[in-house]
């Protein structure tokens, strides 16, 4: 494919005042995003999930190779299979496989091997990273795969919040069982499961999760 420059199709520039107002409003809205483990079983329309994934698909990627695939699951039986396999891995992790330091770091978050959110949430989105591409059986290299998929995940989580829904970043390790379950090829690696839905009436978040580093600790200016 040859390089063909196109005039910038969309311009969203604002005045300095409007720019500051918009980004501050977005910052304040994103501060209301929380990782939630307590989901309501209330259904979420498939069109909403599709729009969220379409948003993630607009993310920038190395050489525009878009090395990702998203599997959306609402089937209760399949969600139960995902939960069963994930909890098997989690039990090994919390039994000592994760190491003392990691398990200690998780204590303020209040996590454990039981993952009821994987069956309660109306949707699971499994994110796969394509380690290399396949075109007509020919293998070709993908570039900046972790970075590209990470950006897409961030945009997906933001879109889910923008839709008025909640999610939880779940990363059982290893997750190889998801390839067979989701009928995905060997060149793809599952990196995250996002349960998506509405929070339950009794939903909580760990107090530790509200402690965010101040700007002075995360930004340097030269």
Automatic annotation (TrEMBL):
Coiled coil: none annotated. Signal peptide: none annotated. Residues 31-197 form the Nitroreductase domain. CDD domains: iodotyrosine_dehalogenase. The keyword Flavoprotein applies. Gene3D superfamilies: NADH Oxidase. It holds the Pfam family Nitroreductase. It comes from the Bacteria. Keywords: Flavoprotein, FMN, Oxidoreductase. GO terms for molecular function: oxidoreductase activity. The keyword Ribonucleoprotein does not apply. InterPro entries: Nitroreductase (IPR029479), Nitroreductase-like (IPR000415), Nitroreductase/BluB (IPR050627). PANTHER family: IODOTYROSINE DEIODINASE 1, NADPH NITROREDUCTASE. This is Nitroreductase family protein.
């Amino acid at each position: 494919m040859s390089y063909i420059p196109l005039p910038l199709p969309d311009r969203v520039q604002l005045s300095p005042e409007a720019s500051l107002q918009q980004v501050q409003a977005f910052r304040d809205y994103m501060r209301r995003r929380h990782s939630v483990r307590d989901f309501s079983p209330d259904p979420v329309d498939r069109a909403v999930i599709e729009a969220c994934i379409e948003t993630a698909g607009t993310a920038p990627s190395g050489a525009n190779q878009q090395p990702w695939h998203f599997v959306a699951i609402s089937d209760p039986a399949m969600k139960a299979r995902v939960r069963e396999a994930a909890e098997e891995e989690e039990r090994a992790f919390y039994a000592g496989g994760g190491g003392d330091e990691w398990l200690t770091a998780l204590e303020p978050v209040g996590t454990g091997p039981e993952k009821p959110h994987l069956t309660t949430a109306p949707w699971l989105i499994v994110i796969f990273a394509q380690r290399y591409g396949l075109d007509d059986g020919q293998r070709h290299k993908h570039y900046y795969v972790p970075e590209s998929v990470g950006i897409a995940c961030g945009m997906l989580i933001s879109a889910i919040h923008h839709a008025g829904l909640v999610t939880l970043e779940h990363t059982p390790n290893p997750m190889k069982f998801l390839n067979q379950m989701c009928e995905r090829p060997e060149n793809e690696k599952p990196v995250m499961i996002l349960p998506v839905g509405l929070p339950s009436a009794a939903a909580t978040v760990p107090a530790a999760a509200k402690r965010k580093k101040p700007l002075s600790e995360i930004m340097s200016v030269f």
